[in-house]
């Protein structure tokens, strides 16, 4: 399972490891997983299988995930700053005894986005009017969850 | 109950037609789909025009449609028609225990036949009575949930609990309890963004929408002190099945010591969560949104519709009284 916006050198590592298929989280709100990561994998002839961000748990539970990779943007000492959703992946991986590896991200993102980002999907409004939104784009992942950190 | 969400009872009979609230059009439009026969009932379930409790309402009401359309047949033929309806409804969506409901109705019909009682009138009475009993018991469960929610609760919910959470928080609000709710948007159908946010907003509750991937941040930062979800299927050992995403929420909640409350319909029809057949839906429902692909061509999709949440992850079940 892959989550985040990985540095370009990451894909050579995947090729080296002879990875053929990868589950990719779509990465709300910007859908970077669906748009960018999937395209990068296709270029490397690795088959991306897109899942919604809420389907990671199912995939772990069914034993589909043999290793998990998250992209980190900053080393914060006891934790890594990663794209939102990385903490869920890491907690699930720990529960299911799957290795979680962190690789540098291609770029650093803002900490939060405006609430309007959650009201729309692919340019269309999906949220009821009058509600508020909370849109964190990054989160800290404790190194306790991680198996390996690439520099 | 001062405020009843339209999602609490999303189908109604008028004449010989069932009108089913089309939840896919909410919140922009409140429109009811006309259902006149069993095939149409199966279609509204399969197309997810209605879901969760609404499906059970449609399943039970489909038998009323069979009864209404039966003008001249003898009781033996009528029971055969009811059995055929049950079979079609049972196959509509595999994760749901429709067979538990349809076998009950067919059982009533067969009993009437064996005892020489008029099947049509007896069955109509039984189904209507059962629906009214369910309604009362669900209202009781709403009150139980309201009691479980403490003042200053900050609740995370997922998907949509068929009106019950909105009604419970409305009760809490009337009692002076201060509550706020975070709702996950619930991809790929956005039931959280469309249904839950809409009905909670309607009862004047502070509602904040988050992406499905923001749950761990909310829970790890102490922004949430209770998780409330529904259940689509219940097992004898306390495991449940609910909307995809429920499992990871429960796992993360356990990691951060946040209690998970689940509205349940106790059943011994299936032993454990591992025995629940999980519906895998068409990848297009994930990859294509309103006619546009969200990922490049060549990307595959995987869309399991439900998660199993094991009883060890559930802090408190809030059951409907099935006695």
Structural overview:
With 151 residues, chain A is α/β, with parallel strands linked by helices. Chain A has one domain: Translation initiation factor eif-2b, domain 2 (Rossmann fold, 3-Layer(aba) Sandwich). In chain A, 26% of the residues lie in helices and 30% in strands. Chain A is built from five helices and eleven strands; from the N terminus they run βαβαβαββαβαβββββ. Chain A has helices at 10-16, 32-43, 56-61, 86-95, 116-119; strands spanning 2-3, 21-25, 47-51, 67-75, 79-83, 99-104, 120-121, 124-125, 132-133, 138-142, 148-149. In chain A, a hairpin with a 3-residue loop joins strand 4 (67-75) and strand 5. Chain A is globular, with a radius of gyration of 15 Å. The two termini of chain A are 20 Å apart. The mean pLDDT of chain A is 97. Chain B contains ten helices and 17 strands. Chain B is globular, with a radius of gyration of 20 Å. Chain B is of the alpha/beta class. A six-stranded parallel beta sheet of chain B has the order 6-5-4-7-10-17, sandwiched between helices. A three-stranded antiparallel beta sheet of chain B has the order 1-2-3, covered by helices on one side. Chain B has two domains: 11-137, translation initiation factor eif-2b, domain 1 (Four Helix Bundle (Hemerythrin (Met), subunit A), Up-down Bundle); 148-319, Translation initiation factor eif-2b, domain 2 (Rossmann fold), CATH 3.40.50.10470. In chain B, strand 4 (153-157), helix 6 (164-174) and strand 5 form a beta-alpha-beta unit. In chain B, helix 2 packs antiparallel against helix 5 (119-148), helix 3 (75-90) packs antiparallel against helix 4 and helix 4 runs antiparallel to helix 5 (119-148).
Strand content of chain B: 15-25%
Shape of chain A: globular
The CATH topology of chain A comes to: Rossmann fold
Q: Unreliable runs of chain A, pLDDT <50, ≥5 residues?
A: none
| Rg of chain B computed from alpha carbons, rounded to a whole number of angstroms | 20 Å
Care to count the β-strands of chain A?
Answer: 11
Our measurement of the CA-to-CA distance between the termini of chain A, rounded to an integer number of angstroms, reads: 20 Å
Summarize the amount of helix of chain A as a percent range: 25-40%
Which class best fits the helix and strand makeup of chain B?
alpha/beta
Helix content of chain B: 40-55%
CATH superfamily of the largest domain in chain B: Translation initiation factor eif-2b, domain 2
CATH class of chain A: Alpha Beta
Oligomer: heterodimer
Mean pLDDT across every amino acid position of chain B: 95
Number of separate helices of chain A: 5
């Amino acid at each position: 399972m892959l989550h985040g916006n990985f540095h370009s050198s990451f894909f050579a590592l995947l090729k080296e490891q002879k990875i053929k298929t990868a589950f990719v989280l779509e990465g709300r709100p910007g859908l970077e997983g669906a748009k960018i990561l999937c395209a990068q994998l296709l270029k490397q002839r690795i088959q991306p299988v897109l899942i919604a961000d809420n389907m990671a748990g199912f995939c772990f539970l069914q034993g589909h995930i043999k290793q998990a990779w998250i992209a980190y943007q900053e080393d914060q000492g006891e934790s890594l700053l990663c794209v939102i959703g990385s903490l869920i992946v890491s907690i699930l991986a720990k529960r299911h005894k799957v290795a979680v590896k962190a690789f540098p991200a291609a770029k650093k993102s803002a900490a939060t986005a405006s609430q309007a980002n959650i009201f729309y999907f692919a340019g269309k409004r999906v949220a009821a009017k009058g509600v508020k939104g909370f849109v964190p784009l990054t989160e800290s992942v404790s190194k306790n969850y991680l198996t390996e950190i690439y520099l | 109950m001062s405020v009843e969400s339209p999602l609490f009872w999303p189908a109604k009979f008028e004449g010989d037609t069932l009108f089913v609230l089309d939840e896919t059009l909410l919140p922009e439009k409140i429109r009811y789909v006309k259902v006149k026969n069993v095939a149409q009932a199966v279609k509204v379930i399969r197309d997810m025009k209605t879901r969760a409790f609404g499906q059970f309402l449609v399943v039970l009401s489909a038998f009323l449609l069979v009864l209404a359309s039966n003008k001249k047949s003898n009781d033996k033929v009528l029971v055969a028609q009811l059995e055929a309806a049950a079979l079609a409804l049972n196959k509509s969506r595999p994760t749901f225990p429709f067979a538990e409901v349809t076998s009950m109705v067919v059982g009533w019909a067969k009993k009437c036949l064996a005892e020489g009682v008029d099947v049509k009138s007896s069955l109509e009475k039984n189904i209507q009575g059962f629906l009214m009993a369910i309604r009362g018991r669900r209202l009781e469960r709403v009150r139980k949930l309201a009691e479980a929610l403490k003042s200053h609760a900050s609740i995370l919910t997922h998907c949509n609990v068929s009106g019950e959470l909105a009604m419970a928080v409305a009760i809490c609000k009337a009692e002076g309890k201060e509550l706020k709710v975070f709702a996950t948007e619930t991809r790929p159908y956005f039931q959280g963004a469309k249904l839950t946010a809409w009905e909670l907003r309607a009862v004047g509750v502070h509602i904040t929408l988050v992406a499905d991937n923001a749950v761990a941040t909310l829970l790890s930062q102490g922004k949430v002190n209770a998780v409330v979800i529904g259940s689509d299927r219940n097992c004898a050992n306390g495991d449940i099945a609910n909307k995809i995403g429920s499992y990871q929420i429960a796992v993360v909640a356990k990691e951060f010591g946040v209690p998970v409350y689940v509205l349940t319909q106790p059943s011994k029809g299936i032993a454990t969560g591992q025995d629940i057949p999980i519906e895998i839906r068409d990848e297009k429902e994930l990859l294509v949104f309103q006619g546009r692909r969200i990922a490049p061509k060549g990307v595959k999709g995987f869309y399991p519709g439900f998660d199993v949440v094991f009883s060890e992850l559930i802090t408190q079940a809030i059951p409907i009284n099935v006695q």
